[in-house]
Amino acid sequence: MAPNRNVKMTIVPAGIRATVLCLAFVGCSATQSGGGFADDGVGSGDDSGSDAASSSGGSGGSGGGSSSGSGSQTASGGGSSNGGGGSGSSSSGGVTSGSSSGDGGGSSASASDGGTPMPSHGCGQGTSCTPASDLAPPASADGFQIVLPANSVTIQPGQEAYYCYYRTIPGSATIDVGAFQSWMSTGSSHHFITFEGGNMPDGTLEQCSIGNGKWIYATSVAGQIIELKMPDGVGLQMAAGTQLILNMHFINPTSTATSPTLKLNVLYGQNIQYQAGTMVSFNASIDVPPAGPTGPGMQTVSGTCQAPVGSKFFAITTHTHKHATNASVNFIAGGQTQNIVSTTDW
How many angstroms separate the most distant Cα atoms in the chain? Predict the structure, then answer.
């Protein structure tokens, strides 16, 4: 039976509606049947919802797996405006990566399946964050950059909007992605998600709710270069002609109109031995009940990802909004449940 990864969030204040997401990166050997690889953990929090993510790869191909979500309520309890966290794990003798968000608050457990635990760190849903006012494009031999054209989007004071920007990857050959780097302007950029699998004229920009296709990258930190670097020898394969969708969420809390922009660098991997993929568990059933005589309303929601046998997780991240009080990720295999991360830091 394939191992499961369970993500649970607890949210407190009354009248809150939101979603929960789990995203993970996993790799499997395309040319070997054993071994593993190590990389830094990834994790992040945000101020508006709750997600976790992870990737996995199938033998000789790029990942997959199923995901589902469910919700449950509890009648008692209270809590502070916290939540979030993330971690990674190995399902078959691979390496376990841990992560946390903000100033910490995450914790990772040792692997019981033969994996090796790694130190928890990461930020902005990436393996590193660097404060910056811009993101330079890579050399053409190293990758390519996608840029939202300047002044193509204007967000009015108090406005919230979603846009999708469609770009086809350059060249006529299959590529292996070894890292993503991104940068968002400050002021109104809330998050952006990169999906694979668009089918629109190249350069199309339209308002949308959320992108379609396979979720491959996301960030929710503006004003910094966020990098998600895969382990050496691991690549996320994209066929020639693949179209990427940059799904952008903008909120302008100021009294002045803004024209946000963002940039995404897609960097090529080298000497690829393992194919990576992504898995996502998404729960849209957050609907916290009103406060009662015993205290604030409370709800616990969860989602589950089922990983392909042999997957080796190297990065997992969550996204939670500030009304969450706790986020935990559990690895379930052979009837045993192992907590990988538990955090109150959103």
Answer: 64
| 47, 160, 165 from 190: Cα distances, Å | 9, 10, 16
pLDDT band at 206 (very low <50, low <70, confident <90, very high): very high
Amino acid identity at 223: G
279 half-sphere exposure, CB direction, 13 A CA radius: 35
Nearest to 303, CA basis, from 328, 325, 336: 328
Cα three-residue angle 9-302-234, rounded to 5 degrees: 90
90, 187 Cβ separation under 8 angstroms? no
Whether the full predicted model's pTM is greater than 0.90, yes or no, is no
Report which of 3, 6, 2 is spatially closest to residue 329, judged by C-alpha positions: 6
What number is the average pLDDT over the span 59-70?
Answer: 35
Helix or strand run (H / E) with residue 277: strand 274-287
Q: Which helix (H) or strand (E) holds 195?
A: strand 189-196
Sheet containing 243-251, strands listed edge to edge, beginning at the edge strand earlier in sequence: 205-207, 160-168, 243-251, 189-196, 214-219
At 298-317, the pLDDT tens digits run: 888 888 878 778 888 787 77
- CA–CA dist 284, 60 (Å, integer): 33
Q: What is the Cα–Cα distance from 322 to 84, expressed in whole angstroms?
A: 8
Residue 262 CA, distance from chain mean position: 17
Distance of CA 124 to the CA centre of its chain: 9
Separation CA 301–CA 287 (nearest Å)? 10
Residue with the two structure tokens 């969550």: 318
